[in-house]
User: What shape does this take?
Amino acid sequence: MESSVDPKPPNVLLYSGCDERAEENFQAFADVVRQLIDCSDRYALYPLAYRDIVQSVPWADNTAALMINCGIDEADEIVQTAIVDFVKSGGRLLAFGPSVGSIMEKLSLPSGLRRELFVVDKELKAVKIRVKPAVDEIGSEFKTLVNGSQLFSDFKSPYMTVVAESCDTDCTRPAIVKMECSDGSAILSLARLDLTPTNTHVQDVQVFNKLKLANESRCNLFTNLLKMLGLNVSPLSTIPPPTKCFLACTEMCQKALTRALQPVMKDGVFQGRVVSMRFLESDSSDCVPSDSELPVVLGHGVPEGHGFDWNIYSKALRTRVLGRTLLYAQVMRSTQTLLDSNPNFLKTIPGGVGIAVVAQRQTSGRGRGGNLWLSPIGCMMASIHLRVPRDSTLGGRITFLQHIIALAAVHGIRSLPGYEEIDIRLKWPNDIYYGHNMKLGGVLVTSSMSSSTYECVAGCGLNVDNSNPTICVNDVVEIHNRSKGMKLDKLSVELTLAQMLNTIEWLLDLLDREGISQLVALYHKYWIHSGSKVVLQTDDDRRNVVVTGINENGFLLVKDGQGVVRTVMPDGNSFDALRGLVTIKQRV
Assistant: This one.
C-alpha cells in the first residue's frame, strides 16, 4: 500500500547567532513564533546552534523551515554557505534583520551587480510599510521596526517578489521580498516582525504607541509570511474544549452554598437555562464538561497545574465578601453566561458567600452590544455576583454600577505602591484604556430585579499579560519602567483580580458612607474625556459639544455652543474617542 506520509520533516529551527545574547534572542524569538504555529503537535521548535553548523551536524535533513533573527558575520563563510545550500536544496528560510543582505547576495546576485544595492543598517528605525495586495487584499499600511534605509534598493529579478515596501517617503523601496531558488524559497525581511513593541530596542513612548497600534497588523503579516513558506499556521481562534470547574472557598462558604442549593438540585445537578452545573465531591469523576453542563468540583482552592495560583489570589484578597467563593475553570463558554442565564441560581446564593466566576480562557465571551470574542491566556476574565438592595444609595442609580467596576479595575492597579502614574485610564461608558487610544479591557453589567433587590452580574475582561494581538497591562508597565527608569514588577492575573475585588468593595463602602460625589470625582481623575471637543450625533442632528463630566447616574454630560448641558445615557449609545463622535441611537 502506498504511503501518504508527508516527506517534509516537522522541525522548525531558529538561528539567533553565537554571541552572548544568542540564548536570550532565541527565547524572545521562540515566544513570538509559538503564538503563530502549533509547536506542540504539528512542529517541534528548536534552536540551531552555531556549533552544529560549523561541525556539519546534519540539521538540514530534519528541518521544515529555518528562521533567522540575527546578523551573520560576513567573514563567517561556513554559516552563510550552509544557509544558502539549505535553500538551494529545497529548504524554506525566513530571515529578519541584518543578515538578509548577505544571504540575498549569495542566493541570486548576477556577476557585476553592485553590492551597495543591499546595504543594511544595523540601527533600527520605526518605518511605515505597505503590504502588497497579493499578500493582503487590503494592502494594509502600518509602522514597524526596520533595519536599514536603502531597503534592497531597486533590484529586479524574475525570481524575486516584493511582499511589502517602505512608504514613509515619496520613494518607496522593498522592505520584504520572497525569492525562489532551485526547489527552495526564502523570505528576506528588513522589517523586524520578529520584534514585539515591548522589545528592549523600543525606548521612546511615542514610538511604542505607534508600534502597539500596529501590533495586530504585524502579527497578521508574520502569519502570512509563514503561510507563503508553506507552513501550517495555527488559527488564533482555535476553540479549546471546556474543562471542569473548581469551587474554591472556605469550608463555611461551601457548606452555606451547597445547603442553599440542595432543595433546587436534582441528583447533584442545578438545572440552568443555558448552562447546568453538576456538583462533584472529587475530581475523580468521569463527568465530561460540555457547553451545556459544567462539572463543579467542590474544594477549598484551585489545584496546582490548572492555570491559576490560588495562593497569590487568596493572600492579596482583603474583602469581607466579594470573591470569597471562586468558580474557576481553565476553559469556559462564558463567565457572564454561567451566572446571568441562571437567575434562580443567583437568588439562591446565600448572603456572605461572594461568588466570582473566573476562567483562564473563554470561548464565547460577551461584550457590550452582544459582541462575542475568544479570550486568550493572560487576560483576566471574571464575572461577579452582587446583590444590591433597591432602597440603597446604589439601588437608586443602578446604572452607575458599570462605572464602579471599571473604576475598580483601574484604581486597583494604580493604587498599588509605585504604580500610581501608570497610564491606564477610563473611557466612558465602560472601557479601560492605555492612554487615549488603545483598549485594554471592558465591563459588562446585567441585572434582574425582584421586589427588594437587584441581582447583578458584573463582568470584566482585562488584558493583563497577553501582549498579542494588541496590548496588555504589563506592556504599559514595561514602557513606564523604561521611560521613568523604574523596575516595577509585572502584574499577575490573580493579583489584578484580587485588587479589583478589594476596590469594588471599598468603593461600595465609600458610596454608602459619603455619597456618590466621591466616586464621581475619582472617576474623573482617571477618565480620558475632560474638556474633549466632540460631535454629538443623532439621527437628524449633528452639533459640536464639549464633554464636561458624568452625573450621579453615570450619564455623560456635554455642553453645546449655547451653554446648554445635555445628558447622554450609556445604554445603546456609543463614544468613539478616536473620531471625537458621540452617537445617540434612536429608540423606538
